[in-house]
């Protein structure tokens, strides 16, 4: 049996679910260990995956939080009991505070642990777990110490591997096939900053736009909708990215991996490092260095949009260099090496 653990947010949960699906397709037994307060607490009961939810304290080096420390200790104890009962032969942790207790206990019990880092910068949980882990899977190349580099491979970030012909995708979304389509994504919850700043800069271009504002912001920004400028609370990412010619987005690992799979050029507006420890800034730089994206500049946004749309092929080639196609299979292959 393979134990998968990680969550708290979709960025940690969805890659693990993709690997779980691949392992089950291969006939392997899997079990998912998540946290009581994460997104997985809502989504896992809707799946057929055997699972358990345990306390998981949020790791934070900047401050000692007694309540979170207590949750962490309770989570480690619950994980120990669960691993004694399930006796997994290998563990995949996708990190985050939810992915720490099960992987830590697994390492202490001598169970092979494979870690998966989604971002271009190692998160705290992954950094703490990495010294004792058997392997470290990376979504994109990351500079590592020699010791970690020896156990690391770039596997990519598992995504839904579904593409549609561009003309078909635009037709299904109600956009003309002969005009370039801009896609704005602020993450699954939407971005208040992008919702406020991008529409007045893009509307004068008179280009079709599909703008995901986030479900919580939908009514607030409904007034932005007009002919050619569409507002949505949530979009189907494979369909929208198949239709789009340019992405304007934050720099979350999942969004960028999907864009790379679709060879979709991007203008990126990463979160401030003060908000996420620099993960999105590192992601944006990795995709810029690969040639698939540019950092968005509001002062010259119109010129950036027009420039990429005029010469998209180099950006498509850059995105292709980081495409995660086959990532779930590569992670499953690696886990099978431990069985």
UniProtKB/TrEMBL annotation:
<keyword id="KW-0132">Cell division</keyword>
<keyword id="KW-0131">Cell cycle</keyword>
<feature type="binding site">
    <location>
        <position position="280"/>
    </location>
    <ligand>
        <name>UDP-N-acetyl-alpha-D-glucosamine</name>
    </ligand>
</feature>
<feature type="domain" description="Glycosyltransferase family 28 N-terminal">
    <location>
        <begin position="2"/>
        <end position="134"/>
    </location>
</feature>
<keyword id="KW-1003">Cell membrane</keyword>
<dbReference type="InterPro" id="IPR006009">
    <property type="entry name" value="GlcNAc_MurG"/>
</dbReference>
<feature type="binding site">
    <location>
        <begin position="9"/>
        <end position="11"/>
    </location>
    <ligand>
        <name>UDP-N-acetyl-alpha-D-glucosamine</name>
    </ligand>
</feature>
<keyword id="KW-0573">Peptidoglycan synthesis</keyword>
<dbReference type="GO" id="GO:0008360">
    <property type="term" value="P:regulation of cell shape"/>
</dbReference>
<keyword id="KW-0133">Cell shape</keyword>
<feature type="domain" description="Glycosyl transferase family 28 C-terminal">
    <location>
        <begin position="182"/>
        <end position="301"/>
    </location>
</feature>
<keyword id="KW-0328">Glycosyltransferase</keyword>
<protein>
    <recommendedName>
        <fullName>UDP-N-acetylglucosamine--N-acetylmuramyl-(pentapeptide) pyrophosphoryl-undecaprenol N-acetylglucosamine transferase</fullName>
        <ecNumber>2.4.1.227</ecNumber>
    </recommendedName>
</protein>
<comment type="pathway">
    <text>Cell wall biogenesis; peptidoglycan biosynthesis.</text>
</comment>
<dbReference type="InterPro" id="IPR004276">
    <property type="entry name" value="GlycoTrans_28_N"/>
</dbReference>
<dbReference type="GO" id="GO:0005975">
    <property type="term" value="P:carbohydrate metabolic process"/>
</dbReference>
<comment type="function">
    <text>Cell wall formation. Catalyzes the transfer of a GlcNAc subunit on undecaprenyl-pyrophosphoryl-MurNAc-pentapeptide (lipid intermediate I) to form undecaprenyl-pyrophosphoryl-MurNAc-(pentapeptide)GlcNAc (lipid intermediate II).</text>
</comment>
<dbReference type="GO" id="GO:0050511">
    <property type="term" value="F:undecaprenyldiphospho-muramoylpentapeptide beta-N-acetylglucosaminyltransferase activity"/>
</dbReference>
<comment type="similarity">
    <text>Belongs to the glycosyltransferase 28 family. MurG subfamily.</text>
</comment>
<dbReference type="GO" id="GO:0051301">
    <property type="term" value="P:cell division"/>
</dbReference>
<feature type="binding site">
    <location>
        <position position="188"/>
    </location>
    <ligand>
        <name>UDP-N-acetyl-alpha-D-glucosamine</name>
    </ligand>
</feature>
<feature type="binding site">
    <location>
        <position position="160"/>
    </location>
    <ligand>
        <name>UDP-N-acetyl-alpha-D-glucosamine</name>
    </ligand>
</feature>
<dbReference type="InterPro" id="IPR007235">
    <property type="entry name" value="Glyco_trans_28_C"/>
</dbReference>
<dbReference type="Pfam" id="PF04101">
    <property type="entry name" value="Glyco_tran_28_C"/>
</dbReference>
<dbReference type="GO" id="GO:0071555">
    <property type="term" value="P:cell wall organization"/>
</dbReference>
<dbReference type="GO" id="GO:0005886">
    <property type="term" value="C:plasma membrane"/>
</dbReference>
<keyword id="KW-0961">Cell wall biogenesis/degradation</keyword>
<keyword id="KW-0808">Transferase</keyword>
<dbReference type="GO" id="GO:0009252">
    <property type="term" value="P:peptidoglycan biosynthetic process"/>
</dbReference>
<keyword id="KW-0472">Membrane</keyword>
<feature type="binding site">
    <location>
        <position position="119"/>
    </location>
    <ligand>
        <name>UDP-N-acetyl-alpha-D-glucosamine</name>
    </ligand>
</feature>
<dbReference type="Pfam" id="PF03033">
    <property type="entry name" value="Glyco_transf_28"/>
</dbReference>
């Amino acid at each position: 049996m393979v134990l998968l653990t990680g969550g708290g947010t979709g960025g940690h949960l969805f890659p693990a679910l993709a690997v779980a699906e691949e392992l089950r397709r291969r006939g392997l037994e899997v079990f998912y260990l998540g946290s009581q307060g994460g997104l997985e607490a809502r989504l896992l009961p809707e799946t057929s995956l055997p699972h358990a939810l345990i306390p998981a304290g949020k790791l934070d080096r900047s401050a000692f939080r007694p309540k979170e420390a207590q949750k962490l200790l309770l989570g480690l104890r619950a994980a120990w009991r669960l691993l004694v009962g399930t006796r997994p032969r290998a563990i995949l942790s996708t990190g985050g505070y939810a992915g720490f207790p099960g992987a830590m206990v697994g390492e202490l019990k001598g169970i092979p642990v494979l870690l998966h880092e989604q971002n271009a910068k190692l998160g705290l949980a992954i950094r703490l777990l990495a010294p004792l882990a058997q392997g470290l899977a990376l979504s994109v190349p990351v500079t590592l110490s020699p010791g970690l580099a020896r156990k690391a491979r770039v596997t990519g970030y598992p995504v839904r591997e579904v593409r549609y012909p561009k003309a078909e995708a635009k037709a299904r979304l109600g956009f003309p096939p002969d005009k370039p389509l801009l896609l704005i994504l602020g993450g699954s919850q939407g971005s208040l900053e992008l919702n406020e700043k991008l529409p007045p800069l893009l509307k004068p271009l008179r280009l079709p736009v599909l703008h995901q504002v986030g479900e919580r912001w939908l009514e607030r920004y409904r007034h932005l909708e007009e002919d050619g400028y569409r507002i949505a609370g949530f979009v189907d990412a494979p369909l929208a990215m198949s239709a789009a010619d340019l992405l304007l987005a934050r720099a979350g690992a999942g969004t960028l991996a999907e864009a790379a799979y679709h060879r979709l050029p991007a203008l990126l507006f990463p979160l401030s490092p003060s908000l996420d420890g620099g993960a999105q800034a590192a992601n944006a730089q990795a995709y810029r260095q690969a040639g698939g994206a540019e950092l968005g500049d509001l002062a010259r946004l119109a010129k950036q949009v027009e420039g990429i749309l005029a010469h998209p092929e180099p950006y498509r080639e850059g995105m292709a260099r980081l495409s995660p196609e086959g990532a779930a299979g590569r992670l499953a292959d690696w886990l099978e090496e431990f069985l």
